[in-house]
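Predict structure. Chain length: 98.
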Amino acid sequence: MSQDKWYRAILSERLAGEWRLVVTSPGRCSQWPEYRWQPTHEVPTIDARKQALAALGYDVLPGAQWEWDEDSDDPDDPTSRVWLLAGIAVRPVSEVIS
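Prediction complete.
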């Protein structure tokens, strides 16, 4: 398996409209790079996400698309608040340059 497949960017909405982007990799959750936007109820644009990834030293894999999902505070309660999550495959910028 290519090392590219090990990295995934996760975009999530937290309380009070705070959006954050985390780049995950195996075995290093305490060192996952993170980017946070100022609280807003607007979803960060694709361009804003690309800029955040670049600031963290990552780039989207060619052909990768954002995949959206949702979660809720209480899956058994249809009136429970919904949390949006998105993910995309990424790679370190150093692999793009080399």
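Summary: The chain has two helices and six strands.
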